[in-house]
Amino acid sequence: MAVRTAERPPTVEDLSLVLGLHPNTVRQHVAALEADGLLERDRRPTGGRGRPRAVFRTTPRGERSGWRNYELLARVLVERIASRADDARAEARAAGREWGALLADDRGPVSGEVQSLVYDVLTEGGFEPLASPGSAADGSLAEIALRNCPFRELADSRGDVVCTVHEGILQGIVQGPSARGPHVELLPRVTPTSCLVRLTRL
Question: b/e map of 92-122 (b: 16 or more CB within 10 Å)?
């Protein structure tokens, strides 16, 4: 953000020069950032008889609003699991289960069917799930197609770790320490654009 990286709190005119935008355009953006609580207005004396000029500085919230690169962090951790463990898939599943159990604890007692819980978690995670009933023939409780993978770039190169972590998270959520819940299986790329979660009776 141009305000955060400026050597001193800039004016609208300062920002206009740095960004190559018309001052009126800058004023609109600054007003929106002020309204969102990311910028605050201050005054800088002109050194003469004129009115002090309005300058802008970031708020504490605005200081934390820069670009993020969580994919890099995720890639570092995935590569660490893949290279350090004797059995990377077992390590990935264990890490996922621990995290899934923590997610389940955070939610507290859950009413309703386990399928609904899994569906909700997948929806919140951005997987765009589509549920269908299970089959009495194979003992499945439900099948849930995942139409989007939030981890696509990592899964393309390290699906052995990424998909196993995800499967472990789901297992940790539905089974917990008691392991009474259904069996959860993640089937990666059952079609070129989707994966499948299958819940079956133990």
Answer: bbbbbbeebbeebeeeeeeeeebbebbbebb
